[in-house]
Amino acid sequence: MNIAGFVKTSFVDYPGKIASVIFTQGCNLRCSYCHNFSLIDKNDGSTSILPEEILKFLAKRKGMIDAVVVSGGEPTLQKNLATFIRKLKYRGFLVKLDTNGTNPDHLRALLDHNLLDFVAMDLKAPLSKYEQVTGTSCLGLSSVLESVEIIKSCKIAHEFRTTLCPELGADDIASLIIDFEIDANYVVQSCRSTERKKVSRNQQDLERLTQWSQQNLSFSFRGFEVV
Ligand code: SF4
């Protein structure tokens, strides 16, 4: 495990639970709005934190921390992820995985071994814009679609979420919902790195999305000031 960041206590990353959050190093996407750009290079070990240090901290906080969120970067790129999660589960913590859904085999294996309690998958864009938003031309969209199906059919808590980045408008969210056949557990979240000029455009999109969400499209919002 190459762990680059650790948040000791979070009240927002695992619904209804107090969680610690770890950020793994390395990502196979290059999203234009990425807030964790320093985590993308898989060979960067400059801020490396030993898994043992995290387990030691969690042991001291047992009873105060309910869950551990494994985020990134892209956690499913980590070879020893299952071993690390098993240690968390053995110590009694709930585990949530944040993933971009590009490694369905790894995701399926974690679920098959009952290592996850919650999965959150990013849906970056409608299929026609996926490469543009992720900055990745060699992306296998079939892998993303496969992960969506795995998560839809899994028995654990899950959510799909899309960041309303500058490349996306309200129509793209509607297309995405159709492309991935999303009918529940879907969140549209704000883009923290959106420039001021583009915020106003997104505000109009937001108003349209709010109308749709009150009509027939089923999703909720996160991180917007006015919804
Ligand atoms: S998938 Fe996440 S970590 Fe990877 S580039 Fe996109 S926003 Fe950044």
How would you describe what is shown here?
Strand 2 (19-24), helix 1 and strand 3 form a beta-alpha-beta unit. Helix 3 (104-112) runs parallel beside helix 5. Strands 1-2-3-4-5-6-7-8 form an eight-stranded mixed beta sheet, covered by helices on one side. The chain is globular. It has one domain (3-222): TIM Barrel (Alpha-Beta Barrel). The model has no long low-confidence stretch (mean pLDDT 91). With 227 residues, the protein is an alpha/beta fold. It has helices at 51-60, 81-90, 104-112, 130-134, 141-153, 170-179, 196-214, and strands spanning 3-10, 19-24, 67-71, 94-99, 118-122, 157-163, 186-189, 220-222. Bound molecules: iron/sulfur cluster (SF4). Iron/sulfur cluster (SF4) is lined by residues 27, 29-31, 34, 36, 39-40, 72-74, 100. The site of iron/sulfur cluster has 12 residues, from loops.
- List the domain count as a whole number: 1
Strand content: 15-25%
The SS-based structural class is alpha/beta
- Summarize the main sheet: 8 strands, mixed
Heterogens? iron/sulfur cluster
Report how far apart the termini are. Answer: 39 Å
Number of beta strands: 8
Mean pLDDT: 91
Low-confidence stretches: none
Question: What is the CATH superfamily?
Answer: Aldolase class I
CATH class: Alpha Beta
Estimate the helix proportion, in percent. 25-40%
Q: Order of strands in the sheet with the most strands?
A: 1-2-3-4-5-6-7-8
Choose one word for the global shape: globular
Q: What is the radius of gyration computed over CA atoms, rounded to a whole number of angstroms? A: 17 Å
Question: Which fold does the CATH topology refer to?
Answer: TIM Barrel
CATH architecture: Alpha-Beta Barrel
Order of helices and strands: EEHEHEHEHHEHEHE
So how many helices?
7
